[in-house]
Each structure stands twice: as structure tokens, then as C-alpha cells.
């Protein structure tokens, strides 16, 4: 793999979906880090997150939608009002949030969390 910044950017912009999903990993809170022995995990709809950077700092909410195309996450309650009165989600990059509660309804996700490596 190349160290060149231009090729690193190219990888991000041209990445296929299965790689984009891994790039959308979010750090776990210190309690979850201790519990699962992992630093981060790919974000999913239904996870509860806390924003640690930006306009919505300290805002907590559930993940409503994950936008793999633009590398953004939409969180319940993190919205802005347009001049015409409509509310629109304010998208947030996954590096600016921390997972505080995982959605463990899926058996496959449980296996991913519990496996080593």
C-alpha cells in the first residue's frame, strides 16, 4: 500500500462498499472499550452515539441513517431548520462521535464483536 497522500485520498473516494463500511468505524466509549476489548467498531443504524466535536457537541441520540456514499451519519435530534421551515438532518462524520450503546439485535454483529483480532 502506498504512503502517498494523493493515493490515500484516492482510496477513500474510490472505495467499494465493503471497504467503505470499515472506514465508517466509530470509537467506543471507555466503558464499552473495557467490556469488549476493542477500540472501535463500524457504525450501524440503531446504535446510540455521543457527538464529541462540532456544532452538536455533547448531543446524544440514536443513529437514524448511515450514508456510505458521503461518509456521514445522521443522528436523531441533530437537525437544522431551513429558511422555509423544514427540518433537515445535519450529517456528522463518524470520527466526531463515540458509541455509547451498541445495537446487538443481530447475531452476526455479536459474532463480529466477540471474535478475536
TrEMBL record:
GO BP terms: namely: translation
Q: Does the keyword rRNA-binding apply?
A: yes
User: Domain KOW: where?
Assistant: 42-69
For this UniProt record, the keywords arranged alphabetically read as follows: Ribonucleoprotein, Ribosomal protein, RNA-binding, rRNA-binding
Q: Which GO terms describe its molecular function?
A: rRNA binding; structural constituent of ribosome
Q: Where are the membrane-spanning stretches? A: none
Cellular component (GO) terms are: large ribosomal subunit
Annotated SMART domains: KOW (SM00739)
Function, as annotated: Located at the polypeptide exit tunnel on the outside of the subunit. One of two assembly initiator proteins, it binds directly to the 5'-end of the 23S rRNA, where it nucleates assembly of the 50S subunit.
Assigned protein family: Belongs to the universal ribosomal protein uL24 family.
Q: How does it assemble?
A: Part of the 50S ribosomal subunit.
Q: What protein does this entry describe?
A: Large ribosomal subunit protein uL24
From which source organism is this entry?
Answer: Methanobacterium congolense
Amino acid at each position: 500500500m502506498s504512503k502517498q497522500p494523493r493515493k490515500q485520498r484516492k482510496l477513500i473516494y474510490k472505495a467499494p462498499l465493503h471497504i467503505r463500511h470499515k472506514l465508517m468505524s466509530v470509537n467506543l466509549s471507555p466503558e464499552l472499550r473495557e467490556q469488549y476489548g476493542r477500540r472501535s467498531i463500524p457504525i450501524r443504524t440503531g446504535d446510540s452515539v455521543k457527538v464529541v466535536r462540532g456544532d452538536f457537541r455533547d448531543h446524544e441520540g440514536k443513529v437514524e441513517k448511515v450514508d456510505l456514499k458521503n461518509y456521514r451519519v445522521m443522528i436523531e435530534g441533530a437537525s437544522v431548520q431551513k429558511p422555509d421551515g423544514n427540518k433537515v438532518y445535519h450529517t456528522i462524520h463518524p470520527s466526531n462521535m463515540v458509541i455509547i450503546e451498541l445495537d446487538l439485535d443481530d447475531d452476526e454483529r455479536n459474532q463480529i464483536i466477540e471474535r478475536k483480532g
